[in-house]
Write a structure and sequence with these properties.
By secondary structure, the chain is an alpha+beta fold. The protein has helices at 32-42, 46-51, 61-66, 95-105, 114-125, 196-201, 206-210, 259-267, and strands at residues 2-7, 13-19, 22-26, 54-60, 70-71, 82-88, 138-144, 148-149, 155-158, 168-176, 182-191, 214-216, 220-222, 229-236, 242-250, 278-282, 301-305, 313-320. Strands 1, 2, 3, 4, 5, 6, 7, 8, 10, 11, 12, 13 and 16 form a 13-stranded mixed sheet that branches. Strands 9-18-17-14-15 form a five-stranded mixed sheet, with no helix packed on it. It starts with a strand and ends in a 10-residue tail after the last strand. 42% of the residues are buried.
Length: 330
């Protein structure tokens, strides 16, 4: 099942089931958050609850997207109660990439860079046998709900940034129950937009490079993540022509960590089990246009597509002026 959040032509919020180009509205739910809260309270799944709330009201997805009425598939009424985070060095990539990475991490551990040591730890211990946790992944914070952009909205790069590049990923979407239990609603396509030039200067700048906006959606895929996900990441120029394109893969078959292990090491912290909060967590990628020396320009568009997740996620790049603030003493 694919769910989207959108606004009607009159500006009212809706949750709808997406089937091809048809969006069928749900009765009684203006937000996915409300739907999740009822599912948690009733001890049922999102899919049966949504199926029982379908109406005869439907409209075209293409029209919704064209008119700029798409919303991110999950948000919180107060953006400060939505954590946006991620894990890196988790994906093995294509066969060629896997070959190259295994050559890099072979031999003496002490001669490896810190990043390659982290990657090797994941390859060796990211998929533990049994119920116990595996090795910790690299982890980062992107921001709160205010950094999330829906399909069709621009990804704003601050003017002090050195780069604005896409990262085609899968994101897990979660709501924390009243008792502190994390509940996963499902997964969505994501563009974990980052400043790769800043990060390349020194890996300790990773935290700076991640404090950016990100794209999520358009649809929430309810249920488990397929073991193998195939997709395509593209850069379109200002005329809409593709100037860079590459396939990407995700799912546990293509990862060095299990989803359960990544979730364990995120939600083991009490801070991330605050009742009522929303979490959007990116699971990493092995495909970047930056790796092919592509520099995306303002006005160009990122396009991330995987048939298993419905429509493509499209976000243009915009540069945001300002951002600097001089502190005043009181």
């Amino acid at each position: 099942m694919l769910l989207i959040q959108y606004k009607t032509a009159t500006g009212d919020r809706r949750v709808g089931i997406l089937n091809g180009d048809d969006v069928t509205a749900l009765a009684g739910y203006a937000t996915t958050y409300e739907l999740a809260a009822d599912a948690i309270a009733g001890g049922t799944g999102i899919a049966p609850l949504a199926s029982g709330a379908v109406t005869r009201s439907s409209e075209s997805y293409a029209t919704i997207a064209q008119q700029g009425r798409l919303l991110a598939p999950l948000d919180h009424p107060d953006p400060a109660h939505c954590y946006v985070t991620g894990t890196g060095l988790t994906h093995l990539g294509s066969a060629d990439t896997r070959d190259a990475m295994h050559k890099k991490i072979g031999g003496d551990v002490e001669n490896l860079s810190d990043s390659m040591k982290m990657f090797r730890l994941g390859v060796e211990g990211g998929k533990p046998a049994g119920e116990g946790p595996g090795v910790q992944p690299e982890w980062f914070y992107k921001g709160d709900g205010s950094v999330v952009r829906a399909g069709g909205q621009a990804l704003d790069m601050p003017e002090f940034a050195l780069d604005g590049g896409e990262e085609p990923e899968i994101a897990g979407l979660y709501v924390i129950g009243a008792d502190g239990q994390p509940y996963r609603l499902g997964f969505a396509l994501g563009n974990e937009f980052s400043d790769h030039v800043t990060e390349r200067q020194n890996y300790l700048y990773l935290a700076h490079s991640k404090l950016r906006s990100c794209g999520v959606g358009p649809a929430l895929r309810v249920g488990e993540l397929p073991a193998h996900v195939e997709g395509v990441s593209r850069i379109r120029d200002t005329a809409g022509q593709v100037r860079w394109e590459k396939a990407f893969v995700s799912g546990e078959q293509n990862m060095s960590h299990t989803i359960a292990n990544l979730e364990h090491h995120h939600f083991k912290y009490g801070l991330f089990k605050r009742p009522g909060d929303v979490h959007i967590h990116f699971f990493g990628t092995a495909t970047l246009s930056f790796a092919d020396n592509v520099s995306v320009q303002a006005g160009e568009t990122f396009e991330i597509e995987s048939p298993q997740f419905g429509p493509a996620l499209r976000n243009a790049l915009a540069v945001t002026p300002g951002g600097h603030a001089k502190v005043k003493a009181l």
